[in-house]
Amino acid sequence: MSSPSQPDTGESRFPRLRLLMLVTLLTLCVALWYLAAHLLRGEADVDWHAATLPCDLHQSACTASLGGGRTLTLDVEAAGRIRALELLPLTVRVDGIEVEAASVDFIGRDMDMGLHRFPLSKQDSGRFEGVGQVPICTESVMPWQAQVVVETAEGRLGSRFDFTVERSVP
């Protein structure tokens, strides 16, 4: 005698379908997170200028030519080397153009470490000051980039300065 057949609920038909839907949902969430991070940084309308080499923020200020005799300079006043979680006095100086606002972002070069933006206060003509902080490093030696963006009547101008941070051993 045959056993009575049970009604098919559909759950056993496509066991991988739920897994596929979950993976798709997670992929969409990650993609939206990256899109939101990109939009929050607001880099699309910045006219980027290369740093003048050599540039070592651990040793001295770094400069970028903005063209037409205009320059942008970033000085990170660290006692010795730049270290994670230490408060860093930041000074941005712009010569040859009137600047309304300035900010510095610390961005992980090889790894997305989130948005770490530090707006600076206007001091005298062309000089902005503030305090920033490199977040905790997940690797023993981590490459970072200081992105400086200034707002002018002509638009937003910026430059990127590379540096590395070594995790201190207790």
In words, what does this structure look like?
- Helices cover about 15% and strands about 45% of the residues.
- It has 1 helix and 9 strands.
- A 9-stranded mixed β-sheet has the order 1-9-8-5-6-7-4-3-2, with no helix packed on it.
- The longest helix is centred in the N-terminal third of the chain and has 27 residues.
- The protein is globular.
- The N and C termini lie far apart (about 75 Å).
Task: Give me the secondary-structure topology.
Layout (H helix, E strand, L loop, with lengths): L14 H27 L4 E4 L12 E6 L2 E7 L10 E9 L3 E10 L8 E6 L4 E7 L7 E12 L2 E12 L4
Parallel strand pairs: 1-9
Antiparallel strand pairs: 2-3, 3-4, 4-7, 5-6, 5-8, 6-7, 8-9
Q: In a nutshell, what does this entry contain?
A:
The protein is of the alpha+beta class and 170 residues long. The protein has one helix and nine strands, in the order H-E-E-E-E-E-E-E-E-E.
